[in-house]
Amino acid sequence: MTLLDVHDLHVAFDGSGHQAVTAVDGVSFGVGRGELVALVGESGCGKSLTGLAILGLLPETARTLDQSKVVFDGTDLTTLAPAAMRRYRGARIAMIFQDPVASLNPVMRVGAQISEAIRAHGRATRQEARARAIALLAEVGIADPASRVDAYPHQLSGGMRQRVMIAIALAAEPELLIADEPTTALDVTVQAQILELLDTLRASRGMAVLLVTHDLAIVASRADRVLVMYAGRIVESAATRDLFHAPRHPYTRGLFGSLPTLADGSARLAPIPGIVPPPDRWPSGCRFHPRCPVGVDRCRRDVPPLVDIGPRHTAACWVTGAEANR
Amino acid sequence: MSIRHRLGVVLAFTVMLLAILGPLLTGDPTAQPDPVGGRLLAPSTAHWLGTDAFSRDVLSRLAHGARLSLLIAAIAMTTAGSIGVLFGVVAGGVRGLFGWTTSRAIDIALALPRIVVLLVVVAALGQITPVELGLVLGLTGWPSIARLVRGEALRLREETHVTAAVALGAPPARVIAREILPGTLPPALVAATLGVADVVLLEAGLGFLGIGVSPQLPTWGSMILQAQRHLAEAPWLLLAPGVALVVATAAATLLGDALRSRLAPGSR
Amino acid sequence: MSHWAVRRTAEAVALTILGAVLLVALVHLLPGDPLNAIIGERALDPATKALLREQWGVDHPLPVVLGDFMVGITRGDLGISYGEQRPVATLLAERLGPTLLLGSLTLLITFTVGMALGLWSALRPRSRRAQLLGTLTLITYTLPSFVIGLVLVWVFAVSWQWLPSAGLDDPLLPIDATGGAVLLDRIRHLILPLATMVLATIAVPIRQQRSAALATVAAPWVMAARARGVSPWRIAWQHVWRPAVTPVITLLGLWLPLLVSGAVFVEYVFAWPGVGALIAEATGTRDIPVVIGAGVLLVAAVQLGSLIADLLYRVATPGTVES
Question: Is the ipTM here above 0.90?
Fold first, then answer.
């Protein structure tokens, strides 16, 4: 059974005076226990908001609309009171963020920040929490954890700080980890190490991971499934292997086009022309149509539904989706 | 321009109007038309803001007080600004012993609370004229401007156009006058405008303590001192100079903020 | 750390001594004959005048005056008051207690309440009440302390007659009054000056804490802490306030001169027998030894305060100062 079931999630910003702007527009997906699901899209597509909305951590100006459901292990999190919601945060669903440098409190020792997460969700004495913190630092691959536990964040490197963030996330043994661009701020070599670590922890702890990223390349070898988001909607979802072998949506293909592929020697980049428009200027019909190389008239008028086009493979496109096949 | 900044301009304009036109439209601030029956009168059509304990017209005194306050503030900020810019530019722009000494002089001057120096000077001088008070307030107000200008000069010294001028062999005095000094003027102007608020408050404070300029002069401070003596019978005497002080200091503060966002948007 | 602390302490002492030298030299170099201040309006014959000049050392050259002053200070001798004909050190000692009482309570209340209010308004910057607080702070910031004091006197002492408006205690209090009655009387006399001092100085800590906390409230580590289920109270305290406390500590040093000038005017308004009122009165009577003595004391207090602020800053910013 699925661990997390996001159903028809809508996130809207209170517009400046006039009308609300919908930034996440009817997103639905599931994450199974121990599964690693990647949520991929360019910045501004609403993928990070989706991650924040699951934990009820939206900025003050944003809110989820009524029809949205975020069912975690049978409970709809959107209906919970703040205090009840807090018992899920960190304890059953943890989250790590893009900037490990800024995500640690600069005036608290890292051990104290790990202990804080342990003690927020269970009874533990100071000594017990400290011992657990040292064990967690060791688990995330920090050398000499017994002395690093007393370090201040500025004494650690960027990669080590992201490891500390992961240790904090693991503190209360969550069943789901939402990782929002966990490697974007890190060096390429460190990126690989952190992804490797996340993959190992998923296997050793049976923890599900929702990996939010703009980078298809880091998804390839690790994710079980990939969800592609564009302008607030999911436009394609498939098992990683299927998506990489047979991307159906023009946007997904565009994302592959902008990947540097060393395999075919040419290594030519073919980026998608244009940029993602901001939420208050999303076009009618298929929101990708102004940038789409294969669009037809209908794309301007009607919103293409997300339909099955193969085993566990869905896409939302009038041209390359199910309709075109018939 | 934000609403706050616009408010600053309007308030500053109000005070200046009061200072420039007020004394022309109101009567003699020292006239005592009826020292027996006409004292401590409540506001009326004859005396818009009432009369004080010597039957003098409060509005007239308020207007003349505005003129005195602005005169003193103008002298003080010109003095403080000139000395502050001079010391700051030398401390920040000149290398070697001369610059270092100037810089330490600024630090020492900053270590002395302004009010203490002011009281010591006034105690030594006794009663002085408004112009002299303006000079005294200026001579005690320069260190904070000098510190600001020094910081700005130190920053400018590292900028490319200055390094370029030095590399091209320009003499140090020329580099300071042409490359560094002009850059420090906008922040100094902002600081001087903000400093007007302090000067107006200090001037009123001295007037309230009954020291500095003659208590017979119609200053806002001496009006407040009067008000304290008759708080029970004539509380409105406190209102006029109190509001005037708030308006003047708020005007200087808001105007300074507006100038800062115009002239030196980066700084805070 | 200790090496740095020793150097910083030496610097504070040196600045205080230099300040004292400057004040003495300033009086000496400025025009204005102190003899007029001593004899006042009295008409004296030239012989008596000459005698007085010699007796008070009015015509000594600056190096001698400075030397005498410095030697005197080491023996706790700050000269004789012109007006009261008593040692300045004794006068200051009498006035120190009330000033310390008023000043330390002001410091305590202004900083705790100011920081709490600043933090509170940063946590909900858009709320109506936080905006009202912002407006009130701006008003108290532009109001001079003596006007605040007089408004409070008018409301609470003149109109409603709830509280006394002047002095340290009630002179009509019976000599055999109980300790409780004396204490209550002292507290009643303290309320208005203390409220004035707090109102006159609280705007700066509120605004400083608010802007510092507005930066930390939006910090990624606050979001990270919320994501790990930390309680709102702990977030406010540990993740918003603690990283935002250092700018406020720095402010403490800058704020002390404000406390000093507040003390001068507020003590004067309420006839509070402290050092501030002393220096104000002495300035009025041109009692120069008293003005200088009280001035040096206030300079030393400001230096001590800024020294403590710097030491606190070191403690509050673990390891980050070096960079």
Answer: no
